[in-house]
Every structure is written in structure tokens, then in C-alpha cells.
Specification:
Number of domains: 1
Helix content: over 70%
Length: 444
């Protein structure tokens, strides 16, 4: 039975509404982080070189995720506003056209990616056996990119309707498949061939493919958010324009992180293979710790969109204040915990003493800025939902190029690896505080 769309985020207590949305979203996001951690744990059993090779792929994996998230934010923001305004036909048009747009973009990304595997990863510092391992992984991984991007846009549309349970369920399905397939394909258990790093990539492709059909079926038959009507050129351009007006700056904002990650990876590579392997573990653990804040930032897009569409800025202000307080409390708790268990976490992924030491160092230093990093994430998503995407992009550009990279370069020369990690923490504190102040001044 089809569910009737309504602006269900414009009523009730704002704080309770946000937490109700964040719970299922957080489970799904933590699940996706576990997805990556499981890959990292199994690959770590293959040795430090295989783990380092997988770490080299992280900037490209993050780039694909950034493009997907940018388009998803753009689609979610405009669809949520249409729902808040009660325009059902516009909701269907925007959802369908957003998916079509994602197909075109992902095709271009895959073609470009295949053509640049060698030169790109040489530029990042992969050579010899490491480059061979990277090519084995990426040549399979690119096949699965459409199965990642298209469902992400579909799930963003479902969240715009105020439902975070179904998107999380879709993500958890992929996670389950991946956890089952990883050991079978990496180590060649039973009738499966031993594919090692390539097996991790294939398990990911198969797992993510399960989300494509499910998300499209839900959009069509549960929410009736798709249309088979072929739009005239002007209408299609209007839909794409509204999505891309927010989606392009949001994608640029998201791309900033993998670009800076590539720069940081290059810096860290100068300290040896163990340092690169530790960076890969540390960033994935960080994704797990920050998953609740990522979930909170994601649900604020439909919450703010629907309430602005319904002309309720008072609810937006209340929701933002609550979200900033939550981010600071959670970030402080994570910092305290990682000071105690950072090295133990590193040891769980790789027994190399040097990898363990550097993972502990990374988590102890970088986690000091997690609360403010959450504030930055919330502010960026809020600006996108408000239709102010260039402010979001400016905030993140300032953090990465005005603060993070310069501080990391200076820190690496003065303090070595700890200086690089300190650059991440200090830049998050400054940019997060600025973002919180700026976004609250913007809501009227």
C-alpha cells in the first residue's frame, strides 16, 4: 500500500523529532562504518602492505562518497521543501530527475576512474607491489560505483519524506551481505577462490548491488515518489538546476575532504608504510565514532527543509541549538574514551607495533576536535538545507585550505607525525565554532 506523503517534521517537539529521526539513521551509518571496518580488519590479516594499499584507495573512495552525498543533500533539500509546501507532483518530478542525473554523473566518474588508476595512485605515492595491489582492488571497485551512488540518491529522497528507518534497513542489508562474503572471497573459504584484496572489492560490489533494486522499489511502490512521465526539456533543466544549485556546492564541500585526505596521505607516506596503514585504520575508526554526528547532520536537512517550506524558522533554531549541544557532549565523551583505548583499537586491526603506536597517537590527538567537527558538519548541512550552499562550501574550504593543510604542513616540519594530526584537531575547533555562530545568525 502506498504511503501518503505529508510534512510530518513540522509538528511536535523539535528535539524529540530530531532524535526520532537520528536513531535509525545512526544505526544505518554505524552499520556502513562497520562495513568499512570489517573490510579493513580482514585485509589487515593479509599484512601491512595490503592494509597500506587499501589505505591508498581511501581518497578515491571518499571522492565517490562525496559526490554521492553532495547530490543526495541537494535532492533531499529540494524534495523536503516541496513536501513541506504540499506540492506532491513536484516531489515526484524532483525525485525521478535526481535519479536520472545520478546515472549520468556516475557513468562519467567510472570512465574517468578507469583511465586514471595508474597515474593517480603513483601521484599519491603508491609504487611497486603496492601499486599492483591498488590496481587489483580498484579495477573491481569501480564496477560497483553505480550500485553505491544511485541508492544513496534514492535513500536521500526517502529521508526527505521523513522516514529514516527504511534507508537504514536498506544499508543494513548490504552490510550483512558484505560481512558474509568478505572472509569467503578474501581467504578462499570452501568453494570460493582466494582473491585477497580483490576479494574485498568484489564483496563490496555484490553487497552494494543489493541496495539498488530495493531503494527503487520502495520509492515506487511504498511512497509513490517516481513518475514515468517524460518531462519537457525546460522542466528537466529546472529540476536539475534546483538540485545542482545545492548539490554542486555540497559535492564540492564533500570533495574537499578526500582532496585534503590525499594531501595528508602524501605527507604521511613520507613517514613509511606503517604510518600510511595506521592512517587508514585511524580514519575508519574516526568514521565510526562520528557516525552519530553524521546521522544528526543528515536528518537536519529534511527537518530544516520541511520546516522552512512550512514557514517555521522557530523550529529550525530550536533544532540547531539542541544539535550543537549534542555534538559537543558526544565529542567530549569520544575524546576521553579514545585516550584510554586508542592503542587497543589499533592492535585489533594490525599487530605491527609501529602501526599500533601511530593509531593510538592519531586517535588521541585528532579526537580532541571531534565535538567541534560535529558542529562544523551540522552547520554545513544546515546551510545546504536553507538554500545557502555556498556558505557551506566557504566554511569547509576555509577549514581545509585556510587551516588544516597549512597547519599540517607546519606541524609536520616542527613535530613530525603528531604535528600533522594536531592540524586536524585545531582546524576543526576553529571552523566548528565559526560555523555554529554563522548558521545561528543566518536563521531568521
Amino acid at each position: 500500500m502506498k504511503k501518503k506523503l505529508k510534512a510530518n517534521l513540522t509538528v511536535g517537539d523539535p528535539e524529540k523529532t530530531i532524535m526520532k529521526l537520528t536513531g535509525p539513521m545512526m544505526i544505518g551509518m554505524i552499520g556502513m562504518v562497520i562495513f568499512n571496518l570489517v573490510d579493513t580488519w580482514y585485509v589487515g590479516r593479509l599484512g601491512t602492505e595490503a592494509l597500506a594499499a587499501m589505505s591508498f584507495t581511501l581518497p578515491v573512495v571518499m571522492l565517490q562518497g562525496s559526490i554521492s552525498m553532495g547530490l543526495g543533500v541537494g535532492a533531499s533539500a529540494v524534495i523536503a521543501r516541496a513536501i513541506g509546501a504540499g506540492n506532491r507532483e513536484k516531489v515526484k518530478r524532483l525525485t525521478t530527475d535526481s535519479l536520472f542525473l545520478s546515472v549520468l554523473i556516475v557513468t562519467a566518474f567510472v570512465i574517468l576512474g578507469y583511465l586514471t588508476i595508474d597515474p593517480l595512485f603513483r601521484l599519491l605515492g603508491a609504487e611497486g607491489e603496492l601499486l599492483i595491489l591498488v590496481k587489483q582492488y580498484m579495477s573491481i571497485w569501480y564496477i560497483g560505483v553505480p550500485f553505491v551512488v544511485i541508492p544513496m540518491i534514492g535513500n536521500s529522497a526517502i529521508r526527505a519524506a521523513g522516514n529514516t528507518v527504511i534507508p537504514s534497513g536498506i544499508m543494513l542489508t548490504a552490510i550483512t551481505v558484505n560481512i558474509v562474503l568478505d572472509p569467503l572471497l578474501i581467504f578462499g573459504i570452501g568453494p570460493f577462490p582466494r582473491m585477497e584484496l580483490a576479494g574485498a572489492a568484489l564483496a563490496t560490489v555484490i553487497a552494494r548491488s543489493t541496495t539498488l533494486v530495493v531503494s527503487l522499489l520502495v520509492l515506487r511502490f511504498r511512497f509513490n515518489m517516481l513518475t514515468a512521465r517524460i518531462p519537457p526539456g525546460g522542466e528537466l533543466r529546472s529540476s536539475w538546476g534546483s538540485v545542482l544549485f545545492i548539490g554542486i556546492p555540497a559535492a564540492i564541500t564533500q570533495v574537499i575532504r578526500p582532496f585534503s585526505m590525499a594531501v595528508i596521505t602524501r605527507m604521511v607516506a613520507g613517514f613509511g608504510v606503517a604510518a600510511v596503514a595506521a592512517l587508514g585504520v585511524g580514519t575508519r575508526v574516526e568514521m565510526f565514532v562520528l557516525a552519530p554526528l553524521s546521522a544528526l547532520g543528515a536528518v537536519l536537512v529534511p527537518f530544516i527543509g520541511q520546516n522552512l517550506g512550512a514557514e517555521r524558522p522557530d523550529r529550525v533554531k530550536t533544532g540547531l541549538r539542541f544539535s550543537f549541544h549534542f555534538a559537543l557532549i558526544l565529542g567530549t565523551a569520544a575524546f576521553a574514551l579514545l585516550l584510554l583505548v586508542g592503542r587497543s583499537v589499533g592492535r585489533a586491526f594490525n599487530p605491527d607495533p609501529e602501526v599500533v603506536r601511530i593509531v593510538g597517537l592519531y586517535l588521541a590527538i585528532v579526537s580532541a576536535g571531534y565535538g567541534f567537527q560535529g558542529m562544523l558538519l551540522i552547520s554545513a548541512n544546515a546551510f545546504n538545507a536553507m538554500g545557502r550552499p555556498y556558505r557551506s562550501a566557504a566554511l569547509n574550504l576555509f577549514r581545509m585550505f585556510g587551516l588544516y593543510i597549512p597547519l599540517a604542513l607546519l606541524g609536520s616540519r616542527v613535530f613530525g607525525l603528531p604535528g600533522i594530526f594536531a592540524g586536524a584537531s585545531v582546524s576543526a575547533v576553529i571552523a566548528g565554532a565559526l560555523g555554529g555562530f554563522w548558521v545561528m545568525r543566518t536563521v531568521v
